[in-house]
Amino acid sequence: MTVITGAHEFLDSEVYIDLRHVLDSPLYLKCEGFNFAGSVKVRSAAWMVASAQREGIIGPDSVLIESSSGNLGVALAMVAASKGLRFVCVTDPKCNPSTAGLMRALGAEVVVVDEPDATGSYLAARKTYVRERCTQDPSCVWLNQYENPDNWIAHYENTAAHIAKQFPHLDTLFIGTGTGGTLMGCARYFREHRPQVRIIAVDSVGSVNFSGAPGARHIPGLGASTPMPLIDPELVDEVVRVPEPDAIRMCRRLAAQGVLLGGSSGTVVSAALQWLNRYAAKAPTAVAIAPDLGERYIDTIYDDAWVAEHYRDIPQDFLENQ
Ligand code: PMP
What pathway or pathways are given for this protein in its record (predicted)? Predict the structure, then answer.
């Protein structure tokens, strides 16, 4: 039995799926969707808030504000509520309606900006709103996941340390990239403690992380429309880019086996399978981090009409053959 005193003591899921039994692939999937708040981002949320409280940046009357495509927003809503703090999440129309609903249920104010840039990204508009609100209201504190080192330190201290303990013979680790918090925390940990572990960054086609060409993307969480300041490409051994339709195919393939995961998990598994098919002999123990579960995507990547509308070049028979 595990007893906790509140949501700020978030739970590490400790669940891994052995995909040899699901996709016949030698890959362990670390399921972060079983964490409190349903995603990997609770680690950064709890760490950033605790650290800002320790440093006196957050006081009892502070209003936390953050730009998030969803999961950090839900995690911060939970952490803020557990500490009696107000929280404003600045998001955009790509945020799944159910995710915004979760934040509201946890007491957060949800602001949806609606001015996309040329690639369809709302990140610049979200950040502009955050800055304006902080100017108007001095009690607002922007934790700034895009530049806050505590975002990656959370993963150095717990995500990576946990994987290292569970897998003493780890060879290759696949990590999706949004802000780069998960990637950088894990990459720094393994560079320092087990430099032989191969770190593979996974990104979406259309993301500018790792100097990719900008393009339209519809799956929230993974990828970036402007370079992410936390990312140091020198710490990464390889980058694998996955087109979003391939990620959706992988999500649906896993769901058909009873494993319902989010879009970025489909992206990471798709990249890992591609890589392992080429180099399996080199990777006796491979782990991929699955950032969240599929429930939040039932109306998007698991909805045929949504997929047909957003991916016009998806083969006609894709949906029919599900
Ligand atoms: N996948 C999902 C579903 C996410 O919510 C996030 C966080 N934006 C990521 C991947 C990427 O994580 P990070 O910000 O640590 O790079």
Answer: Siderophore biosynthesis
Sole residue written with tokens 């403690």: 193
Q: How high is the ipTM of this complex? A: 0.99
Judged by DSSP in three states, 71 sits in helix
C-alpha distance from residue 290 to each of 7, 173, 264 (Å): 21, 11, 7
Determine how many CB atoms are found less than 10 A away from the CB of residue 313.
Answer: 6
How open is the CA angle 139-45-92, to the nearest 5 degrees?
75
At CA 1, angle to CA 103 and CA 286, rounded to 5? 70
Q: Are 111 and 129 in contact (CB under 8 A)?
A: yes
pTM given for the model = 0.95
Q: What are phi and psi of 87, to 5 degrees?
A: -145, 135
Note whether 213 and 174 are within 8 A (CB): no
pLDDT per position as a tens digit, 47-56: 999 999 999 9
For the record, the structure tokens of 220 come out as 């929230």
Pocket of ligand 1 (CB under 6 A): 39, 41, 69-71, 176-183, 221-222, 262, 264, 291-292
The answer to whether 200 touches 237, Cβ cutoff 8 Å, is yes
8 A C-beta contact, residue 287 and residue 30 = yes
Read off the amino acid at residue 49.
Answer: V
